[in-house]
Amino acid sequence: MVQKGLTGFFEKFLTKESLFINKNILQSTYSPDLILHRNDQIQQIANILGPSLRLEKPSNLFIYGKTGVGKTLSVKYTATKMSEIAKKENIALKIFYINCKLRKVADTEYRLIAKLVRELGKDIPPTGLPTEEVYNIFFNIIDKEKQLFILVLDEIDQLVKKAGDELLYNLTRINTELKNSQISILGISNDLVFVDNLDPRIKSSLSEEEILFPPYNALQIRDILNQRAKEAFKKDVIEQGVIEKCSAYAAREHGDARRALELLRVAGEIAERNGYLKVKIKHIDEAEDKIERDRVLDIVTTQPKQLQAVLYAIISLYTKKNNIIFTGKAYEVYKGTCFRSGLRPLTQRRVSDIIAELDMLGIINAKVISKGRYGRTREISLAITSASESKIKKTLEEGLGLT
DNA sequence: GTCAATTCACATGAAAGAGACCACGGTCTAGTG
DNA sequence: CTAGACCGTGGTCTCTTTCATGTGAATTGACGA
């Protein structure tokens, strides 16, 4: 019975008209031919990096702005254009783009350099070699012939947070040791105050030039959405007001275009799955819920067990009485959770850090408060909707082997 | 009533350990000629 | 004689623990009006 139904389902699936022409266009990784509302910034980047086409070392550049305001897109765009020209004119210019945020790729000094070396075509073991050794290999490859490198470090704040700023110091100093080649660094950061917390020596050499990417406003986001939607969706499948609502949502959240695009895409998927012929406004709301839930669920399932256990403790406390939780209480419940699921309980010190991590991930809100005579603690509350809460709790129970 | 000292319940830092992963070089073993 | 298996050493990396220090305001208690 079920099988038969499934065949029918797939057949219907095939014949059903998709609302999309090309869904990829709505992915945040897609780069359009024309980048709207970023002409000034792109021009600035081009001005600063321009000299590299004459093999003069351009200034180190530091770019910052909130998430989803087109930093990466603009840089990549400029970089590919430059690479094309360099290739055509036979200029020894190489541009590397590295995203430091991707775990296991470039979030430590060793891995960053190893990644660079690999980009240059030499294989390097993922671990085992002294960092010093990897540096040497890197030097040798780079310095073999006269050439210019531009190193784009995306999400550089993440890198520094994990690996310390010594790495940047080393990188900025590399040039003094290179005989033939030269390296310029282009750092991209979401964190607006990131540079201020850097060691002054690094700060001055890293941000010889700075470009600030301001958030998009609702009108600009609307333009961007319109531009992409026109190519991604079929004609007339988007109902009046949908784009406007998307942009309003995103503008409220500090002008994050990436989010707006995701919202639109997911709304489209929901509409399509439910058999609608048009994307309606209500799908946006559903999409927002879904995105939120998926995000949390994804985090929850990929994070280590201990983190899950802490979260589980917090959630079960939270449902019991709908108020604010303190660290001590959470820790006690957590210990109980560990006992039930056979985990070895961690020290309170560590749990304190885990709570801070959960806060960073945006699953809970944890604010440090002082209760005067009654000590100092974190004030914890859940930052997820109650609709997703039960689902997350269930997932956690499964993951932890509780029933 | 005012004010500084006290005190609580953790937060926050630093350092170092455990255990997983890995490369490298040397030694041992077994198969080959 | 040599290729491959097998060690020991030394390296990175993540997650933790241990020890130490920091912290903000309610409370306390001395003080003076």
Walk me through what this model shows.
With 403 residues, this protein is α/β, with parallel strands linked by helices. It has three domains: 39-212, Rossmann fold; 216-291, Helicase, Ruva Protein, domain 3 (Orthogonal Bundle), CATH 1.10.8.60; 303-400, Winged helix-like DNA-binding domain superfamily/Winged helix DNA-binding domain (Arc Repressor Mutant, subunit A, Orthogonal Bundle). It is built from 16 helices and eight strands. Helix 9 (218-232) packs across helix 11 (257-273). It binds a DNA duplex (33 and 33 nucleotides) through residues 108, 110-111, 125-131, 133, 304, 306, 326-328, 346-350, 352-353, 356, 368-378.
Within CATH, the superfamily of the largest domain carries the name: P-loop containing nucleotide triphosphate hydrolases
| Strand order in space, largest sheet | 2-3-4-1-5
CATH topology of the largest domain: Rossmann fold
Uncertain regions spanning at least 5 consecutive residues: none
Helix count from the secondary structure assignment: 16
Total domain units:
3
User: Which percent range describes the beta-strand content?
Assistant: 5-15%
| Largest pleated sheet | 5 strands, parallel
From the helix content, strand content and strand pairing, which structural class follows? alpha/beta
Overall residue-averaged pLDDT value: 82
SSE arrangement, N to C: HHEHEHHEHHEHEHHHHHEHHEEH
